[in-house]
Amino acid sequence: LMDNRRRLKDIFICVLVGVTLVFIYFVYDNESDHLYGPAYKKSNVKVSSPPEPKWEDPGPYHVAYPQNYRFVMDNSPTCKTTTPFLILMVPVAPSNLEGRDAIRRTWGGKKMVLGQLVETVFIVGLPGGVDANQEQARVKQESEQYRDLIQSNFQDSYRNLTIKTMVMLEWLAQHCANASFVIKIDSDMLLHVDNLVALLLDPKTPKENYMTGLVWWHSPVLRNPFNKFYMPTQVITEPEYPPYPLGMAYVMSLDLPKKILSVSPQIKPIYIEDAYLGMCLKRLGVSPTDPPDQRMFQVIPRHPLSSCDLSKVIAMTTTSMSQMHIYWQRIAQGVHC
Question: What is the pTM of this model?
Fold first, then answer.
């Protein structure tokens, strides 16, 4: 009887250990995929043809890209019946009609600059909240009126800015291969379009593999869990991000969207969109370029700007729509040192 009990006990312990090991394997397997993505697993398991990355549960530090996002609204003629020299691409919340109207009345309304065609496009995701249907109806009406909106079916939110950026690159790669440059610029920015076009027309400005803005060369990966840009070492082991232009406004030659998209499946996208672009650029072997004058891109300008500084600026943050209007009026009247 004692032998039978001992034998049953041994069998129970073996089964328990086996179940525990299987459980640990699946937990580790899911966690490694969650933290590092399929690239990590592919480095440990030899496969003849790596599957398409499927990051359904991105977790707190990544975003759900790539996915089967599609454009649900896109009646803009930009790059379809026109070939602009420069595209002003403005990511904006669906609800921010005030911001879009302010841009249409100021720097987004310029079409011919120094003999070059310039066109403005706003990119939005899907609205959320209890009044999402009404807001979507308003966006649709606005799109029919102005024909400068493109919308994809991702949820529009701050945490999804990287998705917004990658979808923007998809649209540019699909439609704008024959255009020359794009500036991605936030809706709270002032843009001196003439100064930007002048920079891009400069013979010293590269026509390929070109990205510029306010470049952060040694941006630390923040390890403080209470910082909103916190990134644990399990996600990024390096102490610094690769160099990248700050997301408020950056310019790129239009060969880059397709190139960035070609390497992005190899790098699981983090939610910090400009840092992620820097990671993609590094994989491409492309470095961003400092602007010829640091005054061209300003993130925290000392208001009010002097006429001399305003004559040099390309893009700078503003504190309100009214302030942007005032600066735009000063530029229209003429500013110089």
Answer: 0.81
